[in-house]
Design goal:
Blueprint lengths: L3 H7 L7 E6 L5 H16 L3 E6 L16 E3 L2 H10 L2 E5 L11 H6 L3 E6 L10 E4 L6 H12 L5 H14 L10 H12 L4 H9 L4 H12 L2 E3 L4 E6 L1 H6 L8 H7 L7 E7 L5 E7 L5 H6 L4 E2 L3 E6 L3 H16 L3
Parallel strand pairs: 1-2, 1-4, 2-3, 4-5, 5-6, 8-9
Antiparallel strand pairs: 7-8, 9-10, 10-12, 11-12
The structure holds manganese (II) ion.
Manganese (II) ion binds next to loops.
Length: 330
C-alpha cells in the first residue's frame, strides 16, 4: 500500500518523543543529508532528536553539519539514550550489520526500530520499514515525508535534501535520475536550495592531498578484460604518505567509468585495522550488488560495496575471478 508506511512513521512523531537517528558505517551524502532533514521534521512536531553515527562523514559533507550536531558513537555516552529512546531510525540502509559496533545497542533497545531506505533486499530486523526501492535516494523518501506531513521546507532542509539527491544520483547522471527525482530537485530549488552553492561545497573543496591521491590511484589503475574492467588499489601506506586517510574515494572510482568501453570498476582500500574496503561500480544490467552481497556487503545494482576481514592482496585475488566473469557478460 503506497504511503501506508510513511503515514505509520509520521504517527510516531509528537511532543517529547525521543528519537535517535543513524545511518550506515562509512556514511555518504544521502545518509547524512537525510538525517539532518528528518531531524528538523521530528523537531517541528516537538520531538527530541540526536544523530549518532559510527563513522565521521567525509570532509566534503562537513557543510551539512555546520552546527556540529552529529555525534560519533561511544557506548558509554550513547547506549543509555538508545535504550531509552521512543524510536530509533536507520537511514539509507536496513542491514543491521551495517550499524557496525552500534548493532548491539539497536538490538537491545526497547524503542521502535525503523528503517528508512531505498536499497533492495530489506532485512527483517525492523518494526517498521519505510522502504521504496524505486526511490533515487533516501532523501527522496524524507522529502515525501515532508510533503505528506504538510511541513514546509526551510531553505536549510531543502539544501540538505538537494545535496543528498545530488550525491546519490551521481550529479543527475545515474539511472536513478527519475522524473520524480528531477521534480524534487525543482521543488527544492524553489524552496531555497542553491545548486551552485551546494556544488561548490561538494565539488570545489578538495584538499591538495586528495588531488595528489587521485592522481596516484588513477595513474596506477589496472585495466583488464580489454578495457571492460578497471581495478584501483589503495594501500594504507599511500593514504598515510599523502595524509589522506579521511578522504572519500567514491569520486575516484566513478572517474574510471568515463573510460570508453569500461563496464565494471573495483576499488580496494586497505583499512587501518588490516581489513579491506571494496567499492564496486558497473554499467547497465551488470549487477555488482549481488557480488557485494556474496562478500557480506551490499548496495545497488550499479554501485555497491563491502568490507572484508582479509588484507588488500588477498581480497583482490579473491574477487578477481568474479569481477572478470561479470565484466565479460555484456
Ligand atoms: Mn542512498
Amino acid at each position: 500500500m503506497a504511503g501506508a508506511e510513511e503515514q505509520s512513521f509520521l504517527d510516531l512523531l509528537g511532543p517529547g518523543r525521543r528519537f535517535v537517528l543513524t545511518t550506515h558505517v562509512h556514511p555518504d551524502g544521502d545518509g547524512i543529508a537525510s538525517e539532518h532533514a528528518l531531524a528538523r521534521l521530528i523537531e517541528s512536531r516537538g520531538g527530541e532528536v540526536r544523530i549518532v553515527n559510527v563513522d565521521p562523514a567525509p570532509p566534503s559533507l562537513d557543510f551539512l553539519d555546520a552546527a556540529g550536531e552529529i555525534e560519533i558513537y561511544d557506548p558509554a555516552r550513547h547506549d543509555a539514550p538508545i535504550a531509552g529512546a521512543d524510536v530509533v531510525v536507520m537511514l539509507d540502509n536496513s542491514d543491521p550489520s551495517r550499524l557496525g559496533p552500534m548493532a548491539g545497542a539497536f538490538e537491545k533497545t526497547g524503542a521502535r526500530r525503523v528503517s528508512i531506505d531505498h536499497h533492495p533486499d530489506p532485512e527483517g530486523f525492523w518494526d517498521l520499514f519505510v522502504i521504496r526501492q524505486g526511490a533515487s535516494s533516501t532523501a527522496e523518501i524524507v522529502f515525501d515525508l515532508y510533503h505528506r506531513a504538510g511541513e514546509p521546507l526551510t531553505p536549510r532542509v531543502a539544501a540538505a535534501l538537494y545535496a543528498g539527491l545530488v550525491c546519490d544520483t551521481g550529479r543527475f547522471r545515474f539511472a536513478s535520475t527519475s522524473p520524480s527525482a528531477l521534480r524534487m530537485a525543482a521543488d527544492l530549488v524553489a524552496a531555497g536550495a542553491s545548486p551552485a552553492a551546494i556544488h561548490a561545497e561538494l565539488e570545489e573543496r578538495l584538499s591538495s592531498a586528495f588531488l595528489r591521491l587521485q592522481g596516484r590511484i588513477l595513474g596506477a589503475a589496472e585495466v583488464r578484460c580489454e578495457g571492460r574492467l578497471v581495478l584501483l588499489r589503495v594501500p594504507l601506506a599511500l593514504l598515510r604518505e599523502l595524509a589522506a586517510e579521511r578522504e572519500d574515494l567514491s569520486d575516484v572510482i566513478n572517474e574510471t567509468l568515463r573510460l570508453d568501453g569500461s563496464r565494471v570498476a573495483a576499488l580496494f582500500r586497505e583499512l587501518p585495522d588490516g581489513r579491506t574496503k571494496i567499492s564496486l561500480r558497473s554499467k547497465g544490467p551488470l549487477d555488482v550488488n549481488r557480488l557485494a552481497r556474496g562478500h557480506g556487503g551490499g548496495g545497488h545494482r550499479n554501485a555497491s560495496g563491502a568490507v572484508v576481514e582479509i588484507g588488500l592482496d588477498a581480497t583482490i585475488a579473491r574477487l578477481l575471478p568474479e569481477l572478470e566473469s561479470l565484466a565479460a557478460q555484456g
